[in-house]
Amino acid sequence: MTSGLDSLEVVPFASKRVPNEHPGGDLPWQVYHTVRNAIVATCRRYGPTGPMGAVKIVADAEDPYQMLARDRDFWERGDQDPAYFILDDQLNNERYCYAELLGDDSFHAGWLLAITATLREFDGWGLGVSNIPDSYVLIFGNRLMVSGRLARCRTATEVVETAQRLIRRGRKRWWQF
Length: 177
Fold this sequence. Notes:
Layout: E1 9-12, H1 29-44, E2 49-50, E3 52-55, H2 64-70, E4 75-77, E5 84-86, E6 96-101, H3 109-120, E7 126-129, E8 135-139, E9 143-148, H4 156-169
Helix pairs in contact: 1-3
């Protein structure tokens, strides 16, 4: 593990929803997808990423899905068998993108440091990783908000090690340990 992980604060949280620290009404799809495009580019350095790739940012377009219907090149196709599944739908007006990490080695120190570096370029934005069994992590540029089994971790290195173990193990019930 690298010493860069030591600079990330680990904050346990128990709420089912992290409040939006930057409310302000409707979040234009162009803003959301600018951040998502940066996350996709970062993830692609570490493995196949999908289901969709980067989308063209067009200021006067109302909806990226309508643009895709008119121009098949408007939105890149994602890679086959993605290790990094970056949700392409904007679910709400909060400054979060969501991901699922697939495969045994997708959550590692290099990837986490690259994602935090990317998110530091977008103040207040986070990436939620939703498929770590019995856990959740919301990654920001300078901190990790963790819940479930990850809430026991005190350092980013522990978060990486525990997340890797949980992803490899998969979803199991208490009697299957």
